[in-house]
Design goal:
291 residues; alpha/beta; Rossmann fold; Dihydrodipicolinate Reductase, domain 2; 2 domains; 7-stranded parallel β-sheet; 12 strands; 24% strand
Length: 291
């Protein structure tokens, strides 16, 4: 990847688990710079942790960006779906690329390994959901080899890896994931579910993908699924296929994501994959500026 003449200045909206991990990832990027982390409560743990990381912080929400008087090339929205609608309006005139990690459904829905290159001209990326990022590469691959007539995506995340925003957004998570599967994989009917488990010790993030396809052939399906997984591992190395079986017309694929970031625990693969995809898209945008 060719590096731009300067690092792109990034701001992060949200100081939950996703926002802090994003800030750390941006700091390690060769093409991005975390210039500001924005929360709503100066005394919150998230803002204190961001400050301890040596990052500039602000506590006035989206208004902090305007009041700072600074230019931001990229804004990552790690708040929640309802807030994103207002953020989108307020940021529209700034020229910043908006990377939405909420399941708002706004903007260009993107999974880097599926439509990342085609989506690059957009100024507003939506990362769908952690389940969408995990399942869609596989479902897109299945659509190329066997034409599913029905699809299911069942994600299971540890409660310890989810925050208030996730709980607020469960309805949006389900609807946005379903729409994105049909848009980026196959127009067949789809059902998405999200389970939060309090199991102790916490299990890794897992996604079960099931599909019905009248022309499913084991060798072709397994080859397509494993090739899709390799493409995801280019930016999310903790992504793995743990099983892939074909029984008659039914295809079952078990996926697991373990976190490789220092800021979040290994079992928080749900945070890892969506943050990895978000930073990857921002870095690809930065690289495109040099072409």
């Amino acid at each position: 990847m060719a590096e731009p003449t300067r690092r792109l200045r990034a701001a992060v909206l949200g100081t939950g688990k996703i926002g802090l991990d994003l800030a750390e990832r941006i700091g390690k990027s060769g093409v991005l710079e975390c210039a500001l982390v924005v929360g709503r409560d100066r005394s919150s743990r998230g803002l204190r942790e961001a400050a301890a990381m040596g990052l500039a912080t602000a506590a006035d929400g989206i208004d902090s960006l305007a009041r700072s008087g600074e230019h931001f090339d990229v804004v990552f929205d790690a708040s929640h779906a309802a807030a994103h609608t207002a953020h989108q309006v307020q940021l529209a005139a700034t020229g910043a690329v908006l990377v939405d990690l909420t399941p708002s459904g706004a903007g260009t829905r993107v999974v880097p390994s599926v439509n990342g290159t085609r989506a690059l001209p957009s100024r507003h990326f939506n990362l769908i959901s952690c389940g969408g990022q995990t399942a869609i590469p596989v479902l897109h691959a299945l659509a190329q080899v066997c034409g599913p007539t029905y699809m299911e995506v069942v994600a299971t995340a540890a409660t310890a890896s989810t925050g208030r925003g996730t709980r607020l957004n469960i309805d949006e998570y389900i609807s946005t994931t379903q729409v994105a599967v049909q848009e980026l994989a196959c127009q067949a009917p789809v059902k998405a579910l999200l389970n939060l488990t309090p199991a102790d010790p916490a299990p890794p993030f897992r996604v079960a993908v099931a599909a019905l396809a009248p022309t499913a052939e084991t060798d072709a399906v397994q080859a397509a699924v494993h090739a899709a997984a390799e493409r995801v591992r280019d930016y999310a190395p903790g992504y793995a296929v743990t099983s892939c079986t074909v029984t008659g017309q039914r295809i079952d694929v078990a996926l697991e994501v373990t976190a490789r970031s220092g800021h979040i625990p290994w079992y928080a693969g749900n945070l890892d994959i969506i943050n990895a995809a978000a930073v990857h898209m921002a870095e690809q945008h930065a690289a495109a500026l040099t072409r």
